[in-house]
Task: structure prediction
Amino acid sequence: MTIQKYLVLIVVLTLSACAGVTQPIKFKETNVVTKEKYLQTKTTNGVVLVDVNWGRWWNCGGHENAQLLSLAFDRLPVAAINNEVEPSLVLHTPSRVMVDPVFLNYAYSLEPGEYAISAISIKVADSMSQVGYLTAQRDTLYSGGLPVGGTFVVKPGEVVFIGNFYLDCTYGPTLWRYHSDGKEAFHAHLDEYKKSFPFLDLD
Result:
């Protein structure tokens, strides 16, 4: 799949300020949608499609390598903006050791509403023995009670594609969102989802 940089989601300084003193988030991972779940909630929920590349990026922003570990999203409004509240959608890397540097397809059935990113964890390594984490949570991803990393909206019966998430290393390990390069690439990407989740109505 051909992709291009699209939008920086979280500024570098947000993550850099947290380097070396935090641990990755440990919320329970959300299950991808199944055919049974989809048929049960097709008219009441929406479906969110997202790609994530969990592979290591070598020579990343002054580090030997970096690896995206986790993403989490809140359904707004959030009852309490603290780091202990369970997010509405959580994704974790399938492995911290062996992950191919490719984008993986995910699909989730979510209740209608507006969603915002609420937590990010990135592993950074300077050697085999020097490993740390860059973690940003609600205390840095919300300002004045509002999310600073962008939002997306889910409507009943709709399918929403929110992008391809990976790292950028220009100034330091940072979460970035990428997009397919042109209509042909987007339709090829859609075909990937049809193969991964053949029961979804993607028309």
Remarks:
- The two ends are 20 Å apart (CA to CA).
- The CA atoms of residues 2 and 185 lie 6 Å apart.
- The first strand starts at residue 3 and ends at 8.
- The chain has a mean pLDDT of 88.
